[in-house]
């Protein structure tokens, strides 16, 4: 029994290490802006998490969200909607309806459904905003704050116009813009962004 237990622990450690390595690989591809090259890695990570933790685990829900993000970036909104539904259901089952992850997944699913009703021009604008948001996050990580600010200002306007002034993505982008302004020491510009984001989130 002791030997079997040792093998099980060793196997779990090996699986967790593989998940960590694959997650790092996915992060690096995203950092390099190679979003369309991430599909195979996302699938590998999904299978590793499912095999290690079982299908009803929050880490698997995170993988479903990653699948949805990729699907949105390539314009497969139906697949994105399905993946977000899976994530929401797992979070709801494991964490409860009122947990922030469940609420976030529910908002993401509602957004995907709304985007699916956009016309071609609106959808293109939304996809561009999503890509710009990812690019801005990488610029921020690389210390290129001024360039990130230019992108996020445009993202804020796009989300406000497309999704409305009370939408969570607009609030999130305002909060990110505030963080960038604070990074530059520009408190006068950061403060109204924080205030607007806080009002939306209430």
Describe the 3D structure.
The protein is mainly alpha-helical and 202 residues long. Helix content is 84%, strand content 0%. The chain is built from nine helices and no strands. The radius of gyration is 19 Å and the shape is globular. The N and C termini lie far apart (54 Å). 27% of the residues are buried. The mean pLDDT is 90.
Write the layout of secondary structure elements.
Elements: H1 2-31, H2 39-53, H3 58-73, H4 77-95, H5 100-116, H6 120-141, H7 145-163, H8 168-183, H9 187-201
Helix pairs in contact: 1-2, 2-3, 3-4, 4-5, 6-7, 7-8, 8-9
Q: Give the overall average pLDDT.
A: 90
Q: Segments where pLDDT lies below 50 for 5+ residues?
A: none
> How many individual helices?
9
SS-based class: mainly alpha
Helical content class: over 70%
Morphology call: globular
The profile of the biggest β sheet is:
none
Helix-strand string: HHHHHHHHH
Annotation keywords:
single chain, 202 residues, mainly alpha, 9 helices
Task: Summarize the structure in short.
This protein has helices spanning 2-31, 39-53, 58-73, 77-95, 100-116, 120-141, 145-163, 168-183, 187-201. The protein is mostly helical and 202 residues long. The model has no long low-confidence stretch (mean pLDDT 90).
């Amino acid at each position: 029994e002791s030997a079997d237990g040792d093998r099980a622990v060793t196997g779990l450690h090996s699986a967790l290490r593989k998940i960590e390595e694959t997650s790092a690989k996915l992060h690096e591809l995203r950092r390099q802006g190679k979003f369309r090259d991430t599909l195979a890695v996302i699938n590998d990570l999904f299978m590793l998490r499912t095999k290690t933790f079982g299908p009803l685990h929050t880490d698997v829900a995170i993988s479903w969200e990653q699948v949805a993000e990729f699907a949105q970036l390539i314009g497969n909104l139906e697949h994105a909607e399905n993946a977000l539904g899976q994530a929401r259901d797992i979070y709801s089952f494991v964490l409860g309806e009122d947990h922030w992850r469940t609420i976030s997944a529910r908002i993401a699913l509602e957004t995907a459904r709304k985007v699916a009703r956009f016309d071609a021009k609106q959808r293109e604008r939304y996809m561009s905003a999503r890509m710009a948001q990812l690019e801005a996050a990488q610029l921020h990580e690389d210390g290129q704050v001024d360039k990130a600010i230019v992108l996020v200002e445009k993202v804020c306007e796009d989300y406000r116009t497309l999704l409305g002034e009370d939408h969570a993505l607009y609030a999130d982008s305002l909060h990110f813009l505030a963080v960038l302004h604070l990074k530059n020491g520009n408190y006068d510009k950061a403060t109204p962004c924080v205030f607007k984001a806080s009002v939306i989130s209430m």
